[in-house]
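Task: fold both queries, return tokens.
Query 1:
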Amino acid sequence: MPPSPHTVSVKLLTINVHKGLCQLHRRPIIVGLKEAMLRVDVDVVCLQEVLGVREGQRPQYEALADTIWSDHAYGKNAASPSGDHGNAILSRWPIARSRNHDVSQPGDETRGVLHCQLTLPGIPLGLHVFCVHLGLRQSHRRHQMARLVELLADLPADAPVVVAGDFNDWQQRADAQLKPAGLREVHVSSQGRPLRSFPAVWPVLALDRIYVRGMAASQPLPLPRRPWWALSDHIPVGASLSLHKEAA
């Protein structure tokens, strides 16, 4: 079906890249990861556990974005003597503004929510993309999602929004907390349940999600099992989205 002149189409992918190391052989997989993402031909990518500044090496998010996604933003979540890692958003459209929100909880790993506003043609409020990596404890995730809901409340009510990333929500409790904010999960809405994404070799847990609001339409983006299962300990989750254009 040809695209409607009244909508803008967006293909989005989210994946926890496990610091760019193959889970089976502990070898770098950035080149293979970039090739796999290029074959899917997505417009926006949300990355978690991607490496940033390291001595003598290019940040992984820059290497992945190079020549494909013209804009990118990075939010540092954790640092060590060898470098740092966090969330990143890669985009084929300009990123008008970005901000990383620290949602860490005491006694847990540092966590962040990276918020970018993308400039899309015909979308005056832009597309707001939140890339998240939530904690391992349910009590921490509850506080982190409450903070996310606060951030969403600061946006115009009719602004299109995507919240994507690694929710670590193996108990599937996120929907109850996010639905009152108008968010719905793409796979749950289409197929009745979230996509199982972890562990990559035999996924049994639905940890990675894509929530949306303010869309004309949304549906899961089918992805092959190969080569993703060998590129991280998570497989990616994708969505095809349609946004209403403002009437001329």
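Query 1 returned. Query 2:
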Amino acid sequence: MKLSVRTRYATRAILELVLHYGKEDVLVKDIAKSQEISTRYLEHLIVFLQTIGLVKTIRGKKGGCILTKPPSEINLVKLLNL
């Protein structure tokens, strides 16, 4: 099964958030740098991940992205339909 670029990048972004789960919010630019994804493209993916309820963004000085639920409750099947 071949996954789309969008699906692969979204999965990598979720993985990065899983690695930081319970520690701190993660900036989009930090995810982009760590996963070697274009920041602009990742911003669009984060909006999509918000709409399906996997990610929450927090604005402000200490803002960033966080998962909306524990990693054990995340179903990546939703991402396969991107």
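Both queries returned. Flag for query 2: The beta strands are 55-58, 64-67.
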